[in-house]
């Protein structure tokens, strides 16, 4: 379903960022120096249909970059990415939301951004409203809703996309307990229906519970992969003992 | 290494053509969204937005029909049409850059073909243009001029104008993330162009030897063509050669703009 071959992503971080003609002109004689950051290094990865793959690793290990490369948002510096089937990105909930529009308009806009057709959105509209529990606020402007409600709305819309592949990046960190339970129920459901899911999380218990296979990333490289219990144990073993303050 | 990058692009292109067919819906939804936000989702919001071009028209009309007098028939319509068309150019080119910046967050998180943003913003402005043309026709009818069949040329000119302006917008947007001040620089150019194009003055006051210079600008040709189609006098801009010139410039700009945009938009998620 998803196959990555020797994917490398290098970010060039200029020491001083020149984003205007003026800055370029003023600094024309000064050489700009770069810091090269290997966000991903020779990643080879295959994800089969119906697999629930967990991706773990420390901050800055390249987890989010990996998902972005698969989603097509970032272009790899070298290597190939081939994806078979539609992707629903759960990279961040409700990024396309417009506060000035009503909840209803936002459902249409966000649905369209996630690749749904008009008929699909119409078909799922009632379900989305019901699932997010916002019946009373359909015609309210989104900016007047609490942030929790907005997240629920974003989640409900994303969940309703019928794509075979889901990329999930830490969405669970934001909700309350009820919401987290809802999310987990959803993922159980997806798993049953044989959808392919890539799950990035720091919540190792959740990863252990859902994932068949886990990839451990470190400094942009795959440090270990395999059966979830073993990889998580290795990750835990690598942890530095906490320092006393 | 190079080869592998190309095969990546190949595969993503395939996905574009076959995988997802809802891009038209996404484009329209984005355009409607921008339109709703712009006019606050109300008719009065639209009327309010008419204030700016109408005030501009009123001021210029006052100055150039009371203080300075041009020998132009139907000067009111002549001026209004020029302002409306020029406003379209300035709005599409400037707004598309602003919208691109506003959509930076989405671009970093969700994949969709990047040209959708520019097309959507141009469609928003196109809707405004069509509404403004309706306002023009109100003035047109009040003036008691007869609509002739050659007035239908207006549609051809608007189509040419749209392609031309879209090409410009693509070109500007493709370099915008790397050179943010292109927005300010372009603003100055739009201002310059406004005076270098016969919008408020009749072409007859310009010495003959400068005419070639003025009509290098395809927009000047389009504006003159629209005027001659609707209010006259004369018909030298309705001819075949004029269309050929406009279409070839528009096509060139569009092709170059699209190619550059396609190439540079791949790194938008990183530089925006």
Written description of the protein model:
The complex is a heterodimer of chains A (245) and B (272). In chain A, 40% of the residues are buried. In chain A, helix 3 crosses helix 4 and helix 3 (103-113) packs across helix 5. The termini of chain A are far apart. By secondary structure, chain A is of the alpha/beta class. The radius of gyration of chain A is 20 Å and the shape is globular. Chain A has helices at 21-26, 63-71, 103-113, 118-132, 147-159, 177-192, 204-210, 228-238, and strands spanning 2-14, 34-47, 52-57, 78-83, 87-90, 165-169, 196-200, 213-218, 221-227. Chain A has a six-stranded mixed beta sheet, sandwiched between helices. The model of chain A has no long low-confidence stretch (mean pLDDT 84). Chain B is mainly α and 272 residues long. Chain B has one domain (20-271). Chain B has helices spanning 2-19, 23-38, 43-67, 75-102, 104-109, 115-142, 153-175, 182-196, 211-214, 218-230, 240-264, 268-271. Chain B is globular, with a radius of gyration of 20 Å. Chains A and B meet through strand 1, helix 1, strand 4 and helix 3 of A and helix 1, helix 2, helix 5 and helix 12 of B.
């Amino acid at each position: 379903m998803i196959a990555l071959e020797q994917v490398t992503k290098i970010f060039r971080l200029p020491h001083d960022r020149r984003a205007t003609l003026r800055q370029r002109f003023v600094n024309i004689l000064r050489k700009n120096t770069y810091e090269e950051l290997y966000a991903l290094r020779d990643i080879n990865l295959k994800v089969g249909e119906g697999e629930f793959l967990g991706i773990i690793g420390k901050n800055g290990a390249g987890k989010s970059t990996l998902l972005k490369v698969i989603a097509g948002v970032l272009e790899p510096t070298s290597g190939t990415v081939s994806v078979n089937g539609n992707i629903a990105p759960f990279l961040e909930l409700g990024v396309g939301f417009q506060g000035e529009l009503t909840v209803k308009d936002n459902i249409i806009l966000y649905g369209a951004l996630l690749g749904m057709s008009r008929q699909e959105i119409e078909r799922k509209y009632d379900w989305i409203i019901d699932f997010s529990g916002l019946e009373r606020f359909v015609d309210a402007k989104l900016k007047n809703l609490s942030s929790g409600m907005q997240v629920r709305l974003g989640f409900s819309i994303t969940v309703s996309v019928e794509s075979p592949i889901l990329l999930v990046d830490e969405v669970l960190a934001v909700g309350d307990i009820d919401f987290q339970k809802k999310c987990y129920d959803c993922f159980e459901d997806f798993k049953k229906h044989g959808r392919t899911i890539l799950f990035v999380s720091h919540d190792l218990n959740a990863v252990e519970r859902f994932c068949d296979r886990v990839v451990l990333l470190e400094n942009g490289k795959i440090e270990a992969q395999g059966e979830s219990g073993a990889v998580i144990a290795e990750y835990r073993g690598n942890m530095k003992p906490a320092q006393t303050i | 290494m190079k080869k592998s990058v190309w095969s990546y692009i190949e595969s993503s292109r395939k996905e574009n053509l076959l995988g997802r067919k809802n891009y038209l819906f996404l484009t329209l939804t984005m355009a409607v969204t921008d339109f709703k936000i712009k006019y606050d989702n109300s008719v009065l919001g639209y009327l309010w937005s008419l204030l700016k071009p109408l005030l501009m028209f009123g001021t210029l009309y006052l100055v150039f029909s009371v203080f300075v007098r041009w020998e132009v028939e139907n000067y009111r319509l002549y001026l209004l049409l020029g302002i409306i068309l020029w406003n379209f150019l300035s709005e599409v080119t400037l707004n598309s850059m602003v919208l691109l910046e506003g959509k930076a967050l989405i671009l970093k998180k969700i994949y969709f073909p990047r040209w959708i943003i520019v097309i959507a913003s141009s469609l928003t402005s196109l809707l405004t243009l069509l509404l403004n043309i309706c306002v023009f026709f109100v003035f047109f009818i009040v003036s008691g001029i007869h609509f002739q069949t050659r007035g239908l040329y207006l549609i051809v000119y608007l189509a040419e104008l749209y392609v031309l302006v879209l090409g410009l917008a693509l070109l500007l947007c493709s370099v915008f993330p790397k050179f943010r001040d292109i927005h300010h620089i372009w603003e100055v150019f739009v201002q310059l162009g406004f005076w270098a194009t016969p919008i408020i003055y009749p072409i007859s006051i310009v010495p003959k030897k400068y005419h070639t210079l003025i009509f290098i600008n395809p927009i000047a040709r389009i504006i003159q063509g629209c005027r001659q189609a609707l209010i006259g006098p004369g018909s030298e801009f309705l001819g075949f050669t004029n269309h050929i010139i406009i279409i070839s410039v528009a096509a060139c700009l569009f092709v170059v703009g699209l190619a550059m945009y396609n190439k540079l938009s791949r790194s938008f998620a990183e530089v925006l």
